[in-house]
């Protein structure tokens, strides 16, 4: 067996030039021959984990480390004799990026069904952003990255997006009765959803630092009903609401630039309050 594909490693360090890499392995493919006494440099925002014969050692923190038997206990445990002299060690080193990765996007690809106590079944779309960071490097490698040479936010974002949407669907059904109450509960929903997702993320060695809900959007006709309810609450009486709707009809007709439409809108605007008054009067006579 030749050694053409073997990488000999004496100085091990890694710079994330993209700002998007969560993990980088040295060498990127296969195993490397790490010389006894090789220098491993780990930066403040990093951790480094050596894998030998498929098993992980402890994570190295920031600083420069000289790789010898004494500071890599897993090697002593696996080897029948201490690693020393000139014999290289076939192993891999995973650099893990510990910084916060902000502004990852989540959202519903397809509308999710929500049972509203007043509106019935409503199909909703939702979008937002979230921030993550790696808090358990070995767990992250073993559960998500595996043996990949590189692992970036694009590769993990789609999976985490599906986790968030799944939990959102369940959480809305448990905590929200009707969309009419949604504006008052927006922040509360985001906080509660994050707490529920914390358990999902930590299973992969991740922390969900922040979760934001940018929008929860119903179909246009449902949004119109919500807007009407809000206006009614502000007006406090049905007569005022009818006058407001009449004014809106006149405004639409005027914007359309159609004289006949404008006349019709004006006529309806004048007739609607009278119609409502007659109905109320008939009810009183009865």
UniProtKB/TrEMBL annotation:
InterPro entries in the cross-refs: Band_7/SPFH_dom_sf, SPFH_YdjI
Superkingdom, taxonomy of origin: Bacteria
SUPFAM superfamilies, A to Z: Band 7/SPFH domain
GO biological process, one term: proteolysis
One Pfam family of this chain: Band_7_1
Any one GO molecular function term: peptidase activity
UniProt KW keywords: Hydrolase, Protease
Domain spans labelled SPFH: 31-233
Protein name as it appears in the record: Membrane protease subunit, stomatin/prohibitin family, contains C-terminal Zn-ribbon domain
Species annotation: Candidatus Electrothrix marina
């Amino acid at each position: 067996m030749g050694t053409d594909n073997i990488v000999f490693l004496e100085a091990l360090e890694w710079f994330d030039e993209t700002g998007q890499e969560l993990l980088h392995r040295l060498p990127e493919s296969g195993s490397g021959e790490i010389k006894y006494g090789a220098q491993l440099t780990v930066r403040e925002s990093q951790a480094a984990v050596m894998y030998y014969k498929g098993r992980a050692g402890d994570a190295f923190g920031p600083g420069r480390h000289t790789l010898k038997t004494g500071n890599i206990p897993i090697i002593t445990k696996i080897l029948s004799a201490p690693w020393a002299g000139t014999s290289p060690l076939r192993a891999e080193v995973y650099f893990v990026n510990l910084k916060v990765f902000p502004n990852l996007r989540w959202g519903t690809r397809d509308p999710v069904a929500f049972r509203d106590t007043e509106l019935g079944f409503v199909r909703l779309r939702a979008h937002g952003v979230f921030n993550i960071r790696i808090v358990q490097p070995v767990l992250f490698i073993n559960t998500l990255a595996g043996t990949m040479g590189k692992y970036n936010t694009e590769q993990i974002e789609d999976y985490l997006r599906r986790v968030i949407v799944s939990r959102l669907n369940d959480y809305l059904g448990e905590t929200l009765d009707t969309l009419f109450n949604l504006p008052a509960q927006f922040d509360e929903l985001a906080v509660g959803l994050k707490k529920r997702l914390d358990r999902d993320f930590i299973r992969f060695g991740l922390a969900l630092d922040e979760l934001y809900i940018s929008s929860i959007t119903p179909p246009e006709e449902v949004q119109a009903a919500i807007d009407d309810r809000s206006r009614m609450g502000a007006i406090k009486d049905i007569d005022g609401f009818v006058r407001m709707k009449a004014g809106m009809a006149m405004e639409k007709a005027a914007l359309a630039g159609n004289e006949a439409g404008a006349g019709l809108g004006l006529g309806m605007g004048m007739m609607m309050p009278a119609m409502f008054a007659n109905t109320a009067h008939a009810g009183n006579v009865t």
